[in-house]
Write a structure and sequence with these properties.
It is built from seven helices and eight strands, in the order E-H-E-H-E-H-E-H-E-E-H-H-E-H-E. By secondary structure, the chain is α/β, with parallel strands linked by helices. Helix 4 links the parallel strand 4 and strand 5. The longest helix has 29 residues. It is globular. 30% of the residues are buried. Bound molecules: 2-hydroxyethylsulfonic acid. 2-hydroxyethylsulfonic acid (8X3) binds next to loops.
Amino acid sequence: MLIAQGCKVIGIGRRKERLEQLADEFHGNFHALDCDVRDSLVLNRKLNELPDEFAAVSKLVNGAGLLQGQGTLLDVSDEQISTMLDTNIHGLINVTRAVLPKLIASGHGHVVNLTSIGAHVHYQGGHVYAASKAFVDHFGRCLRTELVGRRVRLTSIAPGKTRTEFALVQCAGDQARADRVYSSLTPLEADDVARAVLWALQQPEHVNINLIELMPADQELSYR
Ligand code: 8X3
């Protein structure tokens, strides 16, 4: 969607082949940066080696995040907890710190953080994941106080159930179980969330969209 609007996009992710497919598809408008956001050394090195036409960055969309495991706090492993905290919190901080000087230098920067409705509501099984998203939500609000006057806007986007690889990751690759996560309702699609990101980015420069919370029309929120 951003490329269709005339932007050049840098995609950061671990799966190099997928990024390279996108680079082929959007030749010249997409730069593949294969990196684990948890690895700030590699991230910073690769961001310092961007080709000239991608070196100036004005928008950052922080989307890396995951939920691993199901059940209570005692049902998830130490490793799953570390992976969630390292990715959802440290990874997001790493990318934000690495890119922020470029956003400030651009004179029209914008950070969009993908949180979750889990940042705003509590529910059984939410524990580490939902709390990590609450961290991102609060981190964003605090960061915004530093960005006022520096021409960098900040938006949190908090989706509910969205049909992506999220459930497959949560269910450790078990597709049948993952499908059941979305079977009781019509979930959001990735495009529904992408349109919210785009809308926030497209507002006039004097407008800061603080928060967009969106969810499937038939997802319950009785636990709010
Ligand atoms: C996940 C949102 O509704 O699947 O970020 O718990 S939900």
